[in-house]
Design a protein that fits this description.
Four Helix Bundle (Hemerythrin (Met), subunit A); two-stranded antiparallel ribbon; 155 residues
């Protein structure tokens, strides 16, 4: 009887995973789809938490935040067809460098990789006509310390 319970639980988990995966790929009109701004706000928060975790040398948390950040970027690209896939795929080298720095537990490499990743975010914003959203590598632990708020000069 106990074996049957475990088998049922595994089957339900598999079904739930399949349904969740389908929900991300093809939302219908009656499903909730987060606004792009909400997804990007989550990405901004992850960006700052990644920096804070690296600064504190909490490499496990840094790796977690990097995975969450990647998930936010993928979610944005999947749910919003106006975002060119190339905008997300061009971030891959800096995401990989960030991952490598975390695996090596190297704060200097992480700082460099996070700088490159941040510039990739800004390049995406510029290409989407959102150059007024300017990210920066955080300089302090205050909320939104990773964004510049003064207007930027037009290119």
């Amino acid at each position: 009887m106990m074996l049957r319970g475990w088998m049922l639980a595994l089957a339900l988990m598999g079904a739930a995973t399949a349904v969740a995966a389908q929900d991300l790929r093809s939302p219908s009109a009656d499903q909730y789809v987060p606004r792009l701004g909400d997804i990007m706000s989550a990405a901004q928060l992850r960006h700052q938490k990644l920096w804070l975790a690296g600064k504190a040398q909490n490499w496990e948390l840094a790796a977690f935040e990097l995975r969450q950040l990647k998930a936010s970027l993928v979610e944005a690209a999947l749910l919003y067809s106006g975002i060119p896939v190339s905008n997300v795929t061009t971030l891959e080298p800096s995401l990989q460098a960030t991952s490598d720095a975390i695996a090596a537990k190297d704060g200097r490499k992480l700082a460099k990789a996070l700088g490159d990743l941040t510039e990739g975010c800004n390049a995406c914003h510029r290409s989407m006509g959102r150059s007024f959203v300017v990210m920066k590598v955080p300089s302090d632990p205050q909320p939104f310390a990773n964004q510049l708020f003064p207007p930027q000069a037009k290119p």
